[in-house]
TrEMBL record:
TM region positions: none
Entry protein name: Saposin B-type domain-containing protein
Nucleotide-binding keyword on record: no
Matches recorded under PANTHER family: PROSAPOSIN-LIKE, SAPOSIN-RELATED
InterPro entries cross-referenced by the UniProt entry: Saposin-like, SaposinB_dom, Sphingo_Act-Surfact_Prot
Residues of the signal peptide: 1-21
Amino acid sequence: MDMKMVWSLGIILTLVLHVDARFECMSLKKDVTCNSCLEASRKADKALNNKNMFKEVNLLSNQVCQSLPFDLKIECLKKSRDQIHRTRIQLQEYFHEKSLCNSTGLCHHQSKVPENNEILGKSLSYMKEKPCTGCRRAVRDIVWRLKDPRMKSKLTSALLDYCEEADEHEDQCKQAVYRYGSIILNKLERLKPYDLCLMMGFCDEEISV
């Protein structure tokens, strides 16, 4: 059974907020310069190559996998490790200066960030904050979205669509989505912003929520 899509949802969200919280020095003003964008791209590349960051994400995915039966837990751990690697590559491509700065117009013509670029806009929205504050706000935003039944329905539909590509394992994949999909989404929904950000190294133990 292929559970890749299940784990990619949580892992990608976690990685994105982790990268977002490392951009505290970038300006959010409309006249943001090409140099600022290039600096953010370099910081993203450095963060994504930080083995400690992915070590913490591995710990998080391991905790999620513990809620599954033993046979599925083994499969879950393997798939999550594979997906973490794929996600890192995808994020490196997204935050590469050609994608982040050139294609958005921040460099060369130095035009403002396109308003319809929601992902980039949300990433930039956390950059001006202190790491702990930005991380906690990003997690709260993720949790808030997961509380929307429509969002859960969309995620479930996406997982079922993915199962159709599993060939001979399609039925088994769909059964797993129906049986364990809600468990995983509920586990993500119960994420405590401060605890997660503390585990990832963005907050100090002395700071309370």
